[in-house]
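stage 2 :: seqdesign
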């Protein structure tokens, strides 16, 4: 009988633990290893944004009209390039959804190491685009649905030097959220509006289903390549701590058991937060979450 008090105490604790609700996803400790992983991801993001072909290098986006559009420094051109370039560089010719570039004989625009005077431009929608260069400038053909434009970069753009980094929410492993994928049975694509007021069609893979606390949420999962789903979302931080047009996120494709992990610490700003010359698609109503995702990148100020 001398052990009876200890047995009673043990039974009490077993009963207490069995009745205590399971901790939610948002209660995990954050390891130093994970902290370093996310810090490295943040550093890589900064390098990509400030690279000579990163988002801060963009200085122009010119939509082409059917027929010929001349380009160069002179204001007499259809497309005016920045100071330091020749008055007349050449012309873009849009005809039957095909674009060619004709370069003036006196100007050495490069395609790789070649300097062709007439070349077909492959658009970004069809894989790696044809990139033309002239000194520190480069440009390529952009296609959005049935519209074509020339996206212009300057590897020495002042915005790169002014970059002071991006603010983030505190790194927390709490925001690694298990998820499953509910396949899109009858819907193969969705139509999203973008920041330049165009409708864009995007391939729909399914719906990521997950919980935060004890609430179940869903996010449309778009095609993000061979290894990932692409997610465009807004939440209750949107327009307050984070960018008003939402944030982006890549999520690993599900494993053989149908599981994946959404890491909101990698939620990041769309390109249009860094430049006026991006064509970012906006979040759908479905992907507007009624919860504050206090993870990932905060809004970025160009000032």
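stage 2 :: out
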């Amino acid at each position: 009988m001398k052990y009876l008090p200890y047995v009673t105490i043990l039974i009490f604790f077993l009963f207490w633990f069995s009745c205590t609700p399971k901790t939610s996803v948002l209660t995990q400790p954050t390891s130093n290893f994970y902290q370093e992983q996310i810090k490295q991801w943040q550093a890589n993001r900064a390098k990509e944004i400030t690279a000579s072909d990163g988002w801060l290098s963009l200085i122009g986006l010119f939509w082409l009209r059917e027929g010929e559009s001349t380009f160069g420094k002179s204001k007499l051109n259809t497309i005016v390039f920045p100071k330091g370039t020749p008055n007349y560089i050449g012309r873009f010719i849009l005809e039957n959804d095909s674009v060619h570039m004709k370069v003036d004989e006196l100007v050495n625009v490069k395609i790789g190491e070649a300097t062709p005077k007439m070349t077909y431009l492959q658009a970004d929608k069809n894989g790696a685009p044809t990139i033309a260069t002239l000194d520190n400038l480069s440009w390529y053909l952009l296609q959005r649905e049935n519209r074509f434009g020339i996206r212009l970069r300057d590897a020495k753009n002042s915005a790169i030097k002014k970059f002071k980094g991006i603010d983030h929410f505190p790194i927390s492993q709490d925001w690694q959220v298990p998820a499953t994928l509910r396949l899109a049975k009858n819907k193969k694509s969705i139509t999203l509006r973008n920041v330049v007021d165009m409708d864009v069609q995007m391939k729909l893979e399914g719906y990521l289903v997950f919980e935060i606390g004890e609430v179940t949420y869903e996010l449309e999962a778009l095609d993000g390549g061979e290894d990932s789903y692409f997610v465009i979302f807004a939440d209750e931080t949107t327009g307050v701590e984070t960018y008003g047009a939402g944030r982006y996120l890549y999520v690993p494709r599900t494993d053989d058991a149908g599981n994946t992990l959404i890491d909101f610490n990698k939620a990041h700003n769309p390109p249009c937060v860094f430049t006026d010359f991006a064509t970012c698609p906006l979040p759908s109503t479905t992907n507007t979450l009624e919860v504050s995702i206090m993870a990932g990148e905060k809004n970025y100020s160009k000032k």
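stage 3 :: structure notes
- The chain has a mean pLDDT of 90.
- Residues 55-154 form a domain with the Tumour Suppressor Smad4 fold (CATH 2.60.200.20).
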